[in-house]
Fold this protein.
Amino acid sequence: MSSKYGLKNKKLAAWVAGIEDLCKPDKVAVYNGSKEEYDSLFKEITASGLAKKLDPEKRPNSFHFCSDPSDVARVEDRTYIASRSKDDAGPTNNWIDPEQLKKNMLKLYKGCMKGRTLFVIPFSMGPIGSPISKIGIEITDSPYVVLNMHIMTRVGTKVLDTLGEDGEFIPCLHSVGKPLADGESDNGKWPCAPIEQKYISHFPEENLIWSYGSGYGGNALLGKKCLALRIASAMARREGWMAEHMLILRLTNPKGKKYHIAAAFPSACGKTNLAMLQPTIPGWKCECIGDDIAWMKIAPDGSLRAINPEYGFFGVAPGTSVKSNPVAMETIRANTIFTNCVVTDDNDVWWEGMGTPCKGGTDWKGRKWTPESGEKGAHPNARFTAPAGQCPVICPDWEDPQGVPIDIFVFGGRRTSVVPLVTEAFDWDHGVYLGATAASEPTAAALDVKSAIRRDPFAMLPFCGYNMADYWQHWFNMGDKLGARAPKIFYVNWFRKSPDGKWLWPGFGDNARVLKWMCERLDGVAKGRKTPIGILPEKNELDLSGLKISGGELDELMAVDTATWKHELDDVASFMGKFGDRLPQRMKVQFDNMKKRLSK
């Protein structure tokens, strides 16, 4: 039996009817995911003045949006994990009692979609029907969200068919929080609510997401960080799998052997660049499977298999150039949504760090702009949304419903000193310790040494949907289940500098040389050398052919100064102390082992 909107799933039909009654939209539309519907919605939104169609010769089927200046990024201090117990959310999350939070938000949701269309977006995170995938339903009153979700996830009728009459889904409710009075319109301006009314709320015990007041990025595209990490991480712990903030790539050696690598880095550490790596060493090939999120389950054969649950890339535009990431630049040549960039006088997009000149145009705030204007034309968090399938180096197996078998985990951070170029963990537990203590320095200086280090465990600090200490224990548990099939774990630092401030490692395509050494360690070809912090390459084990790196520079890249590392332990102890009795015993053992090794 179908509902009045053709929804056969009883639970879904009842939920949509309830939200319609609460939010009072002018109409309801179930998004079918067709190209015709996508094009029609863009035509409508462009006519309203909210989107601008770019020059079809320069940027086919691409559009630009300007958001409100108050709505340009994730709002961490308005992002909540609402578990019944505050301890279950842990010290790294904002917590509100779930009943109180719902009470607050229901007042805001009442009548919030007046004058707007309530869109129902059925979406699959991962290939439709994959044993690793999950289905979500997002209700939103934002056409911008519908269009971005069309690119970022698999949407529409096929998802509803897979859901069936009784299938389970994750309900995701979103509103921009700006109802319209009779006869009122947005007048081409980005709708959102004031900052104090913005809520990005997660109820992990109910697999439920409520978002209000922001129309931007992960605050509104609820399949992104909200479902794919915060809710999925809690689901993964309960169900015995992994939801991680990781890129996935396939590296193939000259003999045709394939290696699959999943890597976690905090922001500004080259994650997208590594996902789209172009190796500088002859005969090695790299293919992209995903640039941001990995969902992993243990397969019947005992291997850990991963999918990219997303369908597109939601990348930071500023700094992306032909030099830094030629593959990304080719990926966004067409069929792309841009947000908060400069629209040039010849109706293309531009941003700082693009590597091409711009005479002038309209900046992200809608004002006339030239390079002499005295401020940046694109917002630092300006974005592109592009289909992953049109990436020139997308892996042929990126949509394999069974996933790809992960051989190697890589963690890293941005450190100008202390941390060597590459370190291998002694074993799984030591690798979990390396991931848990991952840290970066901010790109701007002027802070004292201690506060300049930001611990970002597994690059999951803003995205773990429950107590981070329990998350570490889950990693230990997964290692126990995987046993001999557990991937090897490494830690990298592309950003080390010499004492006079010079970058010691060229980075970009040359990072393949470090990945090559990891593969050779996996195959037992490279011996490595033991140090107190882990296993490092022996001299001459790294392939440096064609690079101009002196012996002294290589020594500096690989230096392990025990006195500095002992000082590092003080900061680690302070960070781990936040978790009190929840800190896993095995983490304490790893800390003590590191302390003993450094004291020898």
About this structure: Residues 312-390 form a domain with the Phosphoenolpyruvate Carboxykinase; domain 2 fold (CATH 2.170.8.10). Confidence is low (pLDDT under 50) at residues 444-450.
